[in-house]
Amino acid sequence: TALEIGEGQQYDIEFETRNDVSEEEYIEMIRLKTSVLLACALKIGAILGEASDADAEKLYSFGENLGLAFQLQDDYLDVYGDPAVFGKKIGGDILCNKKTYMLITALKKADAVQREELERWLTASDYHAAEKIEAVTRIYNEIGVDKCCGWIVEDYYNQGLGILERLSVSAERKEVLKSFVCSLMGRKV
């Protein structure tokens, strides 16, 4: 797990200088950088709790999916979150040209005019932060990147919950994990 986290961090650093990062590469990077830690913690708990090998693997997969949903939601909140609730300034990923799901999807779905403007903002060195955040967010809104991100978050979230339901443990034990996940994702049970 430690090696995978390091590999994910290395990909993240490499992505800073690339403009051709694919959605698949990004998902693999966040799986390695974020998801495997949650997955490993869940699997260790399963092993220590003497769960079956099958349930330990299911908990690992559950953690991977929820880690992906969590990181993708973090990407979304960096653009659309309330700074008071999110705990940090909005637009940091935009200002740093981070290759997030949001940016990768925008570049993929942009028409020629939108792509030209996005690329101009990505290469700009002299700008007002608020102006860049506003312009890029406007393009995201025009393209519907917020909805695309919401769909993929929901998909990974639901995949994770589906795996949780297949665990061969009591409903009460599953409920503890489900409540944790719902709190992690800012949802109500």
Explained architecture:
The chain is an all-alpha fold. Helices cover 78% and strands 0% of the residues. It has ten helices and no strands. It has helices at residues 2-15, 23-48, 53-80, 83-86, 92-95, 101-109, 112-123, 129-143, 145-165, 171-184. Helix 6 packs across helix 9 and helix 7 packs antiparallel against helix 8 (129-143). It is elongated. The two termini are 30 Å apart. The mean pLDDT is 93.
Span of the ends, CA to CA? 30 Å
Helix content: over 70%
> What would you report as the Rg, rounded to the nearest angstrom?
18 Å
- Tell me the structural class: mainly alpha
**Beta-strand fraction estimate:** under 5%
Helices and strands, in order, run as HHHHHHHHHH
- Low-confidence residue ranges: none
Main sheet makeup? none
Kindly state the mean pLDDT as a whole number? 93
How many DSSP H or I helices? 10
What is the number of strand segments? 0
Q: What is the 3D form?
A: elongated
Give me some keywords for this one.
mainly alpha; 189 residues
In short:
With 189 residues, the chain is an all-alpha fold.
Write the layout of secondary structure elements.
Blueprint: H1 2-15, H2 23-48, H3 53-80, H4 83-86, H5 92-95, H6 101-109, H7 112-123, H8 129-143, H9 145-165, H10 171-184
